[in-house]
Amino acid sequence: MSQAYNHFNVTFPAPYVAHVEINRPEKLNAFYQEMWLEYAKVFNTLSHSPDVRSIILSGAGSTFTTGLDIQKTNLAFPGSDGARKAWGIRRSVVELQECVSASEKCEKPVICVLHGFCLGLAIDIACATDIRISSADAKLAVKEVDIGLAADVGTLSRLPKVVGSLSWVKDVAFSARMFNPQEALRVGFVSAVESDKAAAVNKAIEMASLIAAKSPVAVQGTKAIVNWSVDRTVADGLAYTQAWNAAALQTEDVGEAVGGTLGKRKTRFEKL
């Protein structure tokens, strides 16, 4: 599978593993409208590809992303009165929110590699992925209050659920202060910290390859059930799992997985 993008590199470093690189290093991978629309296109395409079972996201060059490119982002909204301007602002925010949510809605697990500067939109993007790892040099910040607004692309909704400490979330969101990978690891924002970007990407490939070797029916079902259950009661999650697995347990992958484990052999699962 091969497709050219203007601002993203997509490569395949291991079987069933895709690596998406934000590719605007000359501007520190800062986003503008064309980029976030293309970001959604990349993840929607990979979501439906039977040749992909797990995805890595990183930035080309030394930086993950410094967030929005203010110079190329139109912050002037047309309208003859306040209500009409409000509708224009809302439509723009909805568009960006939906594009960033593409990695969360993607059927495949997404591993985010944070490195270099990870500011503003970087945290929105990272929160919408499934697993986060960091290089030791990463400099992270929920930066939006420093440009006069509340983060509006997902951080304030997702980050409290990711880390489980509302006090810490408010600390970094109110102050816009930098926090380092060790602090991110301590609160649970990232799962691992590696020595540098290359080591972090290699760790991500190792993790993605392990995931890609499992049954895609099982892995993609697990992501769907976990994401659905996060905002609901345990009883609702159990009921959803019952309905999901009533269909999914009929897969031949169960027999292959069990047979591989008992026979101590490598398993092979059909594309999904």
TrEMBL record:
InterPro entries: ClpP/crotonase-like_dom_sf (IPR029045), Ech1-like (IPR045002), Enoyl-CoA_hydra/iso (IPR001753), Enoyl-CoA_hydra_C (IPR014748)
Compartmental location: Peroxisome
Keyword Magnesium: no
GO biological process, one term: fatty acid beta-oxidation
CDD domains found in the cross-reference section: crotonase-like
GO cellular component entries: mitochondrion; peroxisome
One annotated GO molecular function: delta(3,5)-delta(2,4)-dienoyl-CoA isomerase activity
Keywords: Acetylation, Fatty acid metabolism, Isomerase, Lipid metabolism, Peroxisome
Main location: other
Pathway: Lipid metabolism; fatty acid beta-oxidation
Any one Pfam family match given in the protein's UniProt record, by short name: ECH_1
Family stated for the protein in its record: Belongs to the enoyl-CoA hydratase/isomerase family.
Name listed for the protein in its UniProt record: (Perigord truffle) hypothetical protein
Organism from which the protein derives: Tuber melanosporum (strain Mel28) (Perigord black truffle)
